[in-house]
Amino acid sequence: MIKKLAKVVAAAAIVGALVATAVTPASAVVPGIKSGLKIAIMPKAVNIGYFTAWNKGAQKACKEIGAKCTYVGPTEATGPAQVQFINKIIQQKYDVLVISAADQNAIVPSLKKAKAAGITVVTSDADVAEASASSRVVSILPAASSRIGTAQVDWIAEAVGKKGSIAVLSAAATAANQNAWIKAMGPYLTKKYPKMSWVGGTVGKSTFYGDDDATKSTAQFAAILSQYPDVAGIISPTTVGVLAAAIEKKAKSAKVKVTGLGLPSQMAPYIEDGTVKKVGLWNPIDLGYVAVYAAARAESGTFTGKVGTSFKAGTTTYKVTTGGVAFLGDPFTFTKENIKTFKKIY
Questions:
Q1: pLDDT in tens, 273-321
Q2: What is the pLDDT of residue 19?
Q3: How far apart are CA 15 and CA 65, in angstroms?
Q4: DSSP state of 261
Q5: Out of 3.40.1230.10, 3.40.1670.10, 3.30.43.10, 3.40.50.2300, which CATH number does the structure's domain 2-142+283-328 have?
Q6: Domain named Periplasmic binding protein: which ranges (predicted)?
Q7: Which of 34, 88, 149, 257 could form a disulfide with 184 if both were Cys (CB 3.0 to 4.6 A apart)?
Q8: CA distance linking residue 101 with residue 53, whole number of Å
Q9: CB 181 within 8 A of CB 213
Q10: Domain 145-281 coded CATH 3.30.1300.10
Q11: Of 259, 251, 255, 198, nearest in space to 234 by CA
């Protein structure tokens, strides 16, 4: 039902019929934030469960600040697909755009156009390239890239007994967040786990791309097993990929170990039956929530996004670090012991 609704919203938006999914009375105001802001919330793709949770947090923030918010975007996680929607948002004169960049470079010219048109742009979950940071005010990311990457190496090391060869099943080759995490994995595995290795010799040559598409991710999982039949473990730093890997591992009774970044609501069946021992993630609800607050405060003139400045979202204060980025915190680990609780949340 969520996928069907997402496609309807996406289709309506592209022809100019953007419909707000949450409208709050102007009486619900927060000091330092203008009431009645028109905000667009754009995921990499509207039909990905992770972003449904991300939008849940964004809509909660929108309600608290009295904003009129629209969840809109493509059904395929590509930069060119997002550009069509960004251009439409510019035409419809939104105040704010909160976006997860499907491509760190392809959307930058359109973001610059949005900025020139007076739209406050904040990236969340996935940022633009570092050289293009001026195209947005600030980026709200889950945690430092190095920590997200190394944590997943630790999870797979535990699963394979700290020995054997490892592959990566990622999202798109142009996804800045996944690329940064994967880059951090390479030297960390080599240094900390001498009996482990990358199937292709380096982490870059050991990475397969499923483009955040379930069908493609399933095919790439099969390609890894076919090309490297002795692979001990697969890390998938994407909720779409790790779910596809878990489903296929169970269906094929594959011996390969699987871990990565997964939604507890989606991964619960595979953790509970032992197909996957452990996955991790931050709370995407929080990520969307904080991003809307940052964007709204920036649009209201009470937050600049400059390094060293801070802003408040709800009861928590966040500080902008090098690169114009604010982080939520370390990823949380889900196991059979705690998955029952978290699968009810997101």
A1: 999 999 999 999 999 999 999 999 999 999 999 999 999 999 999 999 9
A2: 36
A3: 28
A4: B
A5: 3.40.50.2300
A6: 39-300
A7: 149
A8: 17
A9: no
A10: no
A11: 259
Query: For residue 65, what pLDDT is reported?
Result: 98
pLDDT given at position 20: 39
DSSP state of 321: B
Residues of the chain with CATH 3.40.50.2300: 2-142+283-328, 145-281
Residues with Cβ within 8 Å of residue 93, at least 6 apart in sequence: 38, 117
Q: For 251, what's the count of Cα atoms within 13 Å in the CB-facing half-sphere?
A: 9
For 185, the enclosing helix (H) or strand (E) is: helix 176-192
pLDDT at 200: 98
> What number of other Cβ atoms are within 10 A of residue 320's Cβ?
23
Name the nearest CA neighbour of 222 among 259, 262, 249: 249
pLDDT at residue 4, rounded to an integer: 33
Q: Spell out, as residue ranges, where the chain has pLDDT lower than 70.
A: 1-28
Could you tell me how far CA 38 lies from the centroid of its own chain?
23
Residue 151 CB-density burial (10 A; 0-12 exposed, 13-18 middle, 19+ buried) = buried
Q: In whole angstroms, what is the distance from residue 346 CA to residue 328 CA?
A: 17
Q: Taking the chain, what is the end-to-end CA distance rounded to the nearest angstrom?
A: 16
Q: Give Cα separations from 121 to 33, 200, 316, 324, 341 (angstroms).
A: 16, 39, 21, 13, 35
